[in-house]
Request: fold
Amino acid sequence: MSSSHRSVLIVGCGYRGRRLAQRLIAMGHTVRGLSRKEANLPKLKALGIEPRLGDVLDPHSLRGIGTGIDTVYHLMGSMQGSPEQLEQLHIKGTRNLLSALEGVSLKRYVYESSTAVYGQTDGEWLDEDAPRDPASAMGKLRVAVENLLMEAHRLSSLPVVIFRPASIYRPQGVINEKIASGTYRLTWDPDKVMNRIYIDDFLELLALALEKGRVGEAYNLSDDEPQRGGDYVNAIADLMGVAHPPIDFKAPADACAELVKQSNKRVRNAKVKRDFGYTLKFPTYREGLAESARVKWIEPEI
Reply:
């Protein structure tokens, strides 16, 4: 990777944003982090991030947000709130952010979308050219934001690179804690095919996007082996030495089968490995879960 210095803005400086910032700062780049909560600013500053208070739904608070910035990571992943609130955050918030960045000479604008943009339900393999026709609210919002950013790419040469990560898993999390305590229950179809990427591979690919990848393109971020969801949670239980979670799921009538297996797909990752020249450190969930067990399912506070 080039050693040239970058001035980075991270919009959505939650757990993943802060982890990314740590990597970028260690590489010699400067990072500005946007947070709408004043209480978060000391935490950002302690990590070496230039804290900036602002809300993408308040255009006034975004004035000057891009001053001195050449790279943007758009990591607003929240899916909490009413449908109206989420539409405001993702659609209006993106428009406000783009308006605030008008006139800023950017080298990269990296958007974290999701494989939820694909609505396939029959377990088929798909790549980035597959139809984006999701049934889920999350998928529909991600498609809408992708379209906004690609329009900005066409009309004003926004140097956007779109990442579509599968489910990002890590050592610490609610599901792992519930499995360890014996309180997790499978209330969904355990045969549904799921796709994942380990947190370290996800963060490394984000950092590589400073230089790698082609603008105006989308990339799936997923490991090499889609798996049955039931196999994944059982593997966690086995590594923890606890009982497999009970299955509370009952298959509905055939007419509902497609709904139950909503977003049942196998995601190809050949494009990102080719264009980024990257070899996954955790090519399947087995390696990722083994690493999680090695660190005792705990991550450092950031």
About this structure: The CA atoms of residues 23 and 207 lie 7 Å apart. The mean pLDDT is 94. The chain has one domain: 7-170+196-226+265-283. The two ends are 26 Å apart (CA to CA).
